[in-house]
Specification:
- The protein has 394 residues and is mainly α.
- The chain has two domains: 310 residues, ABC transporter type 1, transmembrane domain (ABC transporter transmembrane region fold); 47 residues, no CATH class.
- The protein has ten helices and two strands.
- Strands 1-2 form a two-stranded antiparallel sheet.
- The longest helix has 54 residues.
Length: 394
């Protein structure tokens, strides 16, 4: 029997990360990717420090060739290490998604026939393709930016605290304020994404069924009905898309407002400090460079967490399929059936939550004997053969 899906069960973050953790790639890939990410960050953090020294002591007669070489070398190391890190993180993401798809396909192939009776083919295809694409975008595209970004932010904030803790607090205060607004929007994005993925699966299932039965549609003169159903499905998808666009439309200006506000405050406050002589020009420039090393990753974090919510909604359906009970497969047994007869004794059957189709059926089919089953449509002829093929259990 197919395990029934409990749609009321809460899909937690623990289950989401457990799914990702179950398909992690080799540890050496993770270690090398993190090491190259750290190297990228360190190289990037060195540049503002040397820039500060270069500006504060700037003079054409005092230009230090070794300092310029170090800055150029830092740029080169950062570019090479970043490229290598991004490739490894993308490889890791692609490998994880491929593993999930293989597991999902293996599970789908071995699900019992009743599952296919209760699930549209297009819906299953949507889980296999559309939902895993969302997961691929999260792991392969957004995760690398998040990992490198978080390392960059931690490094930059640490240096800034040592450079000038007062100016650093201005940046840090804006983070929790932004999070208070972004967090509830992220929860809404999860609900919208969950509904969007369900609607996409239903729509895929509907059009797949309609196209596969095109002759029946035309024979029944049902083109107008199917046109109406298709239009309704498209409009529902459009509605979810608009709701998602509204959240993005709020997030983008919000983040821009916070970023520009922080930049203006830092420039204004730093300018006053430079004028009063408590801060050097080089330090202010270095501070702004570090500020951009914080701002750029933080803005990408919003995209990452939005995609994370969408991926959680998508993987909920994937997890439901993976938790289904597979058929109790047995190894094939070679057996000589010549001269054997088929016996059916007191066999009864009813589909899940349905009326009894077969009630205490008895018959014997002897070798070489032709047995015919006659009866009206829906009388159970096909069901009886499905039982003989062990698609269902009586």
């Amino acid at each position: 029997m197919t395990k029934k899906i409990n749609t009321q069960t809460t899909y937690t973050w623990k289950k989401f990360f457990a799914l990702l953790g179950s398909v992690k790639p080799a540890n050496w890939i993770i270690v090398i990717a993190l090491l190259t990410s750290i190297l990228t960050t360190l190289a990037g953090l060195v540049v503002p420090l040397f820039t500060k020294d270069l500006i504060d002591g700037f003079s054409f007669s005092k230009i230090n060739a070794s300092l310029v070489i170090i800055i150029v070398a830092a740029f080169i190391i950062q570019a090479v290490a970043n490229g290598f890190s991004v490739f490894l993180l993308n490889y890791m993401g692609q490998k994880m998604v491929a593993t999930i798809r293989i597991r999902l396909w293996k599970k789908i192939i071995h699900l019992p026939v009743p599952y296919y009776d209760n699930t549209k083919t297009g819906e299953t295809v949507s889980r296999m393709i559309n939902d895993t694409i969302l997961l691929k975008e999260l792991i392969a595209d957004h995760l690398p930016q998040f990992v490198t970004g978080i390392i960059s932010v931690i490094g930059a904030v640490t240096i800034l605290l040592f450079m000038d803790w007062k100016m650093t607090l201005v940046i840090l205060i804006s983070v929790p304020l932004t999070a208070l607004v972004v967090a509830p929007l992220g929860q809404k994005m999860f609900k919208i994404s969950k509904g969007l993925q369900k609607e996409t699966a239903d729509f895929t299932g509907m059009i797949s069924q309609t196209l596969s039965e095109s002759r029946l549609v035309k024979a029944s003169n049902a083109e107008n009905l199917e046109e109406k159903r298709g239009k309704e499905g498209v409009n529902r998808l459009f509605g979810f898309g608009i709701r998602e666009a509204k959240i993005v439309a709020v997030l983008a200006p919000l983040i821009f407002f916070v970023v520009m506000g922080v930049i203006v405050v830092i420039i204004g406050y730093g300018g006053i400090r430079v004028t009063s002589g408590t801060l050097s020009t080089g330090t202010l420039i270095a501070f702004l460079l570090y500020l951009f090393q914080i701002i750029v990753p933080v803005t990408s974090f919003v995209t990452f967490f939005t995609q994370l919510q969408k991926s959680k909604g998508a993987t909920e359906r994937i997890s439901e399929i993976l938790e289904q009970d597979s058929e109790n497969l047995q190894n094939g047994i070679e057996k000589d059936i010549s001269g054997k007869k088929i016996q059916v004794r007191d066999v009864s059957f009813a589909y899940a939550d349905g009326d009894t189709i077969l009630d205490k059926i008895n018959f014997t089919a002897n070798p070489g004997e032709v047995v015919a089953f006659a009866g009206p449509s829906g009388g159970g002829k096909s069901t009886l053969f499905a039982l003989l093929e062990r698609f269902y259990e009586p």
